[in-house]
């Protein structure tokens, strides 16, 4: 993981833009691409990523579900729909399930991180970054024996 952050907002609708900002801050380089699921296809998100030069592949519908309603009228959304209907766009978006979802599973299963122990926004943010750092160390050293101490 190159970016990890927490929020007190119930809605994570701005997550793709924030993730781009966090990844840029931690690596010193803006990401060239973003893969995001159907929770994030707002016109504002798509426009914001285009403005910083990020090539996004954001699902406009839930996987396996047919699109409902009329075709989008917003320009960035129309461009995204065209991008996702190409063979290249479908192939790139398909990588999302192999890149994003395993990290969440690893945090739970391998690192043992299922809930926060601390309270307060700053402490929760620190605890989450520590769990993500443990995940990164585990990925760098896959043969290490890992045992979690429980209190």
Number of helices: 7
Strand order of the largest sheet: 1-2
Helix content: 40-55%
Q: Outline, from the CA principal axes?
A: globular
Structural class, from secondary structure content?
mainly alpha
- Helix and strand run: HEHEHHHHH
Strand content: 5-15%
Radius of gyration: 17 Å
Largest sheet data: 2 strands, parallel
Mean pLDDT: 83
What are the low-pLDDT stretches, counting only 5+ consecutive residues below 50?
none
Question: What is the tally of beta strands?
Answer: 2
Distance between the termini: 27 Å
Structure description:
Strands 1-2 form a two-stranded parallel sheet. Strand 1 (33-36), helix 2 and strand 2 form a beta-alpha-beta unit. The chain is mainly alpha-helical and 151 residues long. It has helices spanning 15-27, 43-51, 75-85, 87-94, 96-99, 101-109, 121-140; strands spanning 33-36, 55-58.
SSE layout:
Elements: H1 15-27, E1 33-36, H2 43-51, E2 55-58, H3 75-85, H4 87-94, H5 96-99, H6 101-109, H7 121-140
Parallel strand pairs: 1-2
Helix pairs in contact: 2-3
Properties at a glance:
two-stranded parallel ribbon; 7 helices; 49% helix
Summarize the structure.
The protein has helices at 15-27, 43-51, 75-85, 87-94, 96-99, 101-109, 121-140; strands spanning 33-36, 55-58.
């Amino acid at each position: 993981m190159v970016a990890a952050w927490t929020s007190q907002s119930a809605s994570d609708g701005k997550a793709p833009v924030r993730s781009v900002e966090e990844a840029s801050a931690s690596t010193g380089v803006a990401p060239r691409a973003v893969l995001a699921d159907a929770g994030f296809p707002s016109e504002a998100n798509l426009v914001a990523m285009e403005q910083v030069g990020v090539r996004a592949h954001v699902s406009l519908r839930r996987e396996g579900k047919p699109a409902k309603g009329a075709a989008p009228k917003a320009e960035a959304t129309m461009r995204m729909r065209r991008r996702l209907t190409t063979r290249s766009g479908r192939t790139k978006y398909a990588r999302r399930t192999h890149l994003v979802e395993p990290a969440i599973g690893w945090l739970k299963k391998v690192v043992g991180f299922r809930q926060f122990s601390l309270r307060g926004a700053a402490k929760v943010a620190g605890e989450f970054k520590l769990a993500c750092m443990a995940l990164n160390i585990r990925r760098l050293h896959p043969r290490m024996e890992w045992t979690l101490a429980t209190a």
